[in-house]
TrEMBL record:
Superkingdom: Bacteria
InterPro entries in the cross-refs: Glyas_Bleomycin-R_OHBP_Dase (IPR029068), Glyas_Fos-R_dOase_dom (IPR004360), GlyoxalaseI/FosfomycinResist (IPR050383), VOC_core (IPR037523)
One function term, GO molecular function aspect: dioxygenase activity
Keywords in alphabetical order: Dioxygenase, Oxidoreductase
Domain VOC: 10-125, 143-256
Pfam family, one: Glyoxalase
Entry annotated with the keyword Oxidoreductase: yes
Record flagged with keyword Acetylation: no
Full protein name: Catechol-2,3-dioxygenase
């Protein structure tokens, strides 16, 4: 039997178009703990010292708020080509044919739209940057953990990411959020049922529980409102503290995401009880503030090619 085609390994970065650009730069630099690795006027790339990915967030100043693209890593250039062939055969709209990339780290990638019109990039052979292990108590993000998207077409979106990117369903939260994996990490992508397509949240992995608490406390002390947390989910078994960035996109500090048996895992469905949503009991049930924030504004960049 032929092995299933599963080209993707992880999320490389989320590229966002933001109206409040300057404020977002200050947020990442002074509070969230990312490092500016490259910039141009109104465009900046943000990495972490602990991650070989060139950058995990890209910000671009724009009057309209939305997702410029979400980039995923592919195993090889051959897989990028095979993915492109499959997309074309499936009448999926390509934004850019497979070819070399001119963003930091270069590489070889293809761009296309998912069923909601979110621009997706899948790339291979991107040069890694130097990196080091975070030190004990160093409370800045280690890497991008996962990305969650709201969609009014959850089943179609889930089917698309399974069929083309080779993601697998790990678990459901009620019937409103599904968690998709590329390997043994519980999820790299979450799809939430929403009235419109938008960023639900972007999640950053911290070194450990201590660093996750220290980072969360740093934001609290700086006057940031914690939308929900600290807590520990049951689906994914990861810790959570959710904050709002200056453009109204929810950001999460997390750590200790569950590792599953990629080949043999049977999807589970978790209920929405407060004790399931937060095992610890500090965060409790999801808050009204979090519900409103994660619904977010309708994405204004759907079906739009990214200028970068
Ligand atoms: Fe999350």
């Amino acid at each position: 039997m032929q092995a299933p085609f599963r080209p993707v390994t992880h999320v490389r970065h989320v590229a966002m178009a933001v109206p409040n650009y300057k404020e977002a730069v200050d947020f990442y630099q002074d509070l969230w703990g990312l490092e500016r690795v490259a910039d141009d006027s109104g465009l900046s790339f943000w990495g972490t010292p602990a991650d070989p990915e060139q950058y995990v967030v890209r910000l671009r100043e724009d009057e309209k708020k939305g997702i410029d693209l979400v980039a995923y890593a592919a195993r090889s250039a051959a897989d990028v080509d095979q993915l492109a062939e499959r997309l074309v055969a499936g009448n999926i709209k390509l934004d850019r044919e497979p070819g070399s990339l001119d963003t930091p780290g270069g590489g070889y990638g293809v761009r296309f739209y998912d069923p909601d019109g979110v621009l997706v990039e899948v790339s291979a052979d991107v040069a890694p940057k130097p990196f080091r292990a975070l030190e004990e108590r160093e409370s800045i993000p280690q890497n991008l953990s996962h990305f969650v998207l709201n969609t009014p077409n959850l089943e179609a979106m889930k089917g698309f990411y399974e069929e083309y990117l080779g993601l697998r369903l790990t678990d459901w939260l009620g019937n409103v959020l599904c968690f998709m994996r590329a390997g043994s990490q519980h999820h790299i992508l979450g799809l939430g049922r929403g009235r419109h397509t938008a960023i639900n949240h972007v999640s950053f992995e911290m070194r450990g529980i201590d660093e996750y608490m220290r980072g969360s406390g740093r934001l609290l002390r700086a006057g940031q409102e914690v939308l929900w947390g600290p807590g520990r989910h049951t689906a994914g078994d990861n810790t959570f503290s959710y904050f709002l960035d200056p453009n109204g996109n929810v950001h999460e500090y997390t750590t200790s995401l569950e590792v599953v048996d990629d080949e043999n895992h049977e999807p589970r469905t978790y209920d929405m009880k407060p004790e399931t949503q937060d095992q610890w009991g500090f965060g409790g049930a999801i808050t009204e503030r979090m519900l409103a924030a994660q619904a977010n504004d309708p994405d204004q960049k759907l079906w739009a090619s990214s200028p970068v």
